[in-house]
Amino acid sequence: MAFYDNKHWLLSHIRNSFVSSDDTGMCEMVMQGENLSRKLVSSTKYDCYPGEDDSDEDDMDAMGQSFDIQSDLDFGAHRARSNTAARLEKMDRERKRAAKTKHIKWETAPVTLSRNELAEVFQGKDLKQVSSRDAKSQGGKSLLAQQLEQCPDLPQNPFQTYAKCDGSAHVGVKVRRYGIFLPILAPPDCNYPMTVIILSAAKVEDLIGLTLYKCSIHHPQYKIKGGVENYGMHIAEDDGEIDWDFPSLDPRETVGKFGFKFLAMVEGNNTWPSRSQDVTKDDVDSCPGHDPSGTRSKAQLQAAEMRMKGHMTAMEAPLYQSYQVFVLHPLRAKTEVHLGISGEKVEIDPITQQKVSAKFWVRQRAVSYDTDCIVACDLLETKSNSRTVFRLVYYRSPSPSPEQSSATPHSQSFKHHDFEAPEQVARAVVQQMNHILELRTSSHRREYLAMRERKSHRRKSFHLGPR
Amino acid sequence: MTITMTSDTSPSEQVILATGGYDHTIKLWQAHTGICQRTAQHTESQVNALDITPDKQHIAAAGYTRIRMYDLASNNPSPVVNYEGLSKNVTSVGFQEEGKWMYTGGEDLSARIWDLRSRTLQCQRIFQVSAPVNCVCLHPNQSELVVGDQSGVIHLWDLKTDHNEQLIPEADASIQSIAMDPLGNLMAAVNNKGRCFIWSLSGGGSQEPTKLNPCHKIEAHPKFALKCAFSPDSSLLVTTSADQSARVWRTSDFTLQTELKQEGQRWVWDAAFSADSQYIVTASSDGIARLWNIEKGTVEREYSGHSKAITSLAFRDQIVNP
């Protein structure tokens, strides 16, 4: 239908009809996009439903923008069986509730009234009398004004914003019901739990706020100390005993995750992360129902950042990087070298100022290996002085060594260098090297891996052998 | 003189403030403290309009395909009466001042009169128009209904004679709200272009039908106007709009008295005056209703607790004898 091209119509349609059957909050987001409608409106100068006239063959628009509302359970062709059960249960509940309600259906009048009868039933009122009577009562004070005078300068309840998380009257929205003990109150109030019903999507922080809000109304004698961050929710028994074995609930978690029936709110909170003011504010702003998708905890962001960092190192791996490490020689001597790694080759360069005269027998020559010859790079051990040893295994073609006559490469063809470096550097080298190796598939590497596999099998079978 | 502040006094002696909207709940507030006293369930539908019965015992909520009536005296969160058998949204609801009948208007292209007395349907009436009805206003003389529709037509329906008249203040502009002052001297209508039209009324006695004489036109808002209402002393007119403000106009010369605006309050859907015409309550899309001091233009109280937009409110204040 060409009808659906009309942005205004769609907006209006969403506003008028879908909002009421939408639990996902999407419609709400469209609703919040009032700027959008402003933009659209400005283009056509206040005309609310432009294009309506164009589609004169549609008699539907004569019936207004709101279409018949679908019950949210009717959506989708494939429903799980449990939904049917849930729906039946819901209908049952509805029926029980509806039984208490008197239903009156519209009926047209059985008889049409005569003119005289009409005039009698709908008798007009003489407004002139009213106006004289009203004039007398003018100048009186209203009940509201009087009540307002009695409590002037009522301080704004700082926890008022949490009231919107109250789920006590919501139907069809997931809510959690908690009995919350308040040891902060004086007896006997502290002995009984206060029932708090909250939207499942709300955070524990909202639960604390809502509890404080209810507390401020029902127990005004209790002075609330500071904000929600000064309080913590603990798991409690049904008699109000607090389970101190567990830390208080993380304020950033959604309450929907916790299935406890009883909680206790105490002063002081050990799980509030030391975080800056602005983060706290963000969390408060992102009350449920507002923008669930927009709220991301700091931890989540950090995780995402880490992942991204991982991607970056993988992408940058073939770029040349130089590390300062020590080569370990068989005789426990070590030489400081520059280990240069790029996508093409690996270079080992001794740092030049080394005294050539000394330890000539362990002198490390400058060598370079083609990346295709590198077959593995692994961390071996971390020493107590936080230095880490890693091994670079490479393939040396057998030809230069005459004693290696075998045509097929075996373990002898694979040589290695052991390096020692601070742990961070070692990890970086191994990571970069492995990223490069993953990108390439050299035949040597395949052979080496196959050989290692065989070796480990052999070792295993040995262990499993008769003993 | 006694002041009724405790909740166990009968609702007829109290200030009643109710709000409803897209979160499918109706909340009742203690107007002077901002505390939510009660929340009633309005399942499966947003609340399009609210009105309190003249005896202050019930509150009616117009929603999708039905009008629900809740008991104000008890704590029952479910409706006590459900008026049904309609299609589409019911957009407005109100009562004859003695509570004999209720009037509604809706997107099923009609305005209706419901007889509220049991076992008689004497008053049951229907008035069909050719576009969805956005608003219905009862003349203070209790015998004429004014119906505004989406095509921009205002219908005057004389209940005594069934005679009706039409007028179109502006072509192709939907009438959003109509109001009459308590003395029946003025009528105001706002449309979706933000304009407000004022008529002075003549006639309207028991014999002759009311005549509308165009009197004034205000460019009230730069965009979509949503609601208009006269103050009980007829000296002020409030208009609310999608431009995130409510504006208060003097009816003496239709100049702007105050603009009631708060950062981030978004669309202002509904407004009502206190009995002494000193305060206005507004309902807006940010889920907060506000009580304004008209003279100072300041917010006196905020009613926060709805999780979604508030689209309608009902407010009943009274004059206390000095």
Overview of the structural elements:
The complex is a heterodimer of chains A (467) and B (322). Chain A has 467 residues and is α+β, with helices and mostly antiparallel strands. Chain A contains 12 helices and 13 strands. Chain A has a 7-stranded antiparallel beta sheet. Chain A has a 4-stranded mixed beta sheet with strand order 4-3-6-5, with helices on one face. In chain A, strand 8 (334-341) and strand 9 (345-350) form a beta hairpin. In chain A, helix 10 (298-316) packs across helix 11. Chain A is elongated, with a radius of gyration of 38 Å. The N and C termini of chain A lie far apart (80 Å). In chain B, the strands form 7 sheets. In chain B, strands 3-2-1-28 form a 4-stranded antiparallel beta sheet, with no helix packed on it. A 4-stranded antiparallel beta sheet of chain B has the order 4-5-6-7, with no helix packed on it. Chain B has a 4-stranded antiparallel beta sheet with strand order 8-9-10-11, with no helix packed on it. Chain B is built from no helices and 29 strands. With 322 residues, chain B is mainly beta. Chain B has strands spanning 16-21, 25-30, 35-41, 49-52, 58-62, 67-71, 81-84, 90-95, 101-106, 110-115, 125-128, 133-138, 144-149, 154-158, 164-167, 175-180, 186-191, 195-202, 211-219, 225-230, 236-241, 245-250, 256-261, 268-273, 279-284, 288-293, 298-304, 310-316, 319-320. In chain B, strand 25 and strand 26 form a beta hairpin. Classes of the chains: A alpha+beta (467), B mainly beta (322). Chains A and B meet through helix 3, helix 4, strand 1, helix 5 and helix 6 of A and strand 3, strand 7, strand 27 and strand 29 of B.
What keyword list fits this structure?
heterodimer, A: 467 residues, alpha+beta, Ubiquitin-like (UB roll), PH-domain like, 7-stranded antiparallel β-sheet, 4-stranded mixed β-sheet, B: 322 residues, mainly beta, 4-stranded antiparallel β-sheet, 29 strands, 0% helix, WD40_repeat_dom_sf (chain B), repeat (chain B)
